Amino acid sequence: IFANLLCDGKMFIVVSDYLDKEYNNWSINLGDYIQVLSIENLYRYMGIEEDEIVRISMTEIKNYDGEKIILPFNLIIDSHYFFDEDGLAISKKIIPIFLGITFNNFNFSKKTLQYLKTYEPIGCRDEKTMRELQTHGIKSYLNGCMTLTLGHKNEKRVIHKKRKVFFIDAPESLKEHVPDNLKENAIFLENE
User: Which end of the chain, C or N, has fewer beta carbons within 10 A?
Assistant: First the structure.
């Protein structure tokens, strides 16, 4: 049985409830929901119907007790949803498929390393995670983020001059291909 996350059933979650006074915009994190949509897109590509997909919330990852499910992970694995005091803790009823994960903390417990070893090869979103897992003898590969599989509409996009465009972990070679109207307001950052 295939599964996907619900992100606790909320459609939009405000992670940083601050008002950007300069531009009068709210900061909203839609990242988890876009990750969920990328897995939905994968299932559609595989011909799996929506009514065949079990939906579980992030809060159920450790204690899920339903039928055995296959759950693709395409997330940053760093919150309390994934860990207990001994390390990575995912229900035994969940068969994880690590498609594009990243870790912000590489202080892996023995329990975490053994768990990842059980489900290798591990698809990583970034080279740093891949190299760190390989250092620990875990087979891993660089897959990037599954959101890269989402299509785009061929429509003109309106670029607001006051808005910032963030390029996170973008290769240096990408800069020469960024249109000038985006470069004016672009901020290039690295996720370390």
Answer: C
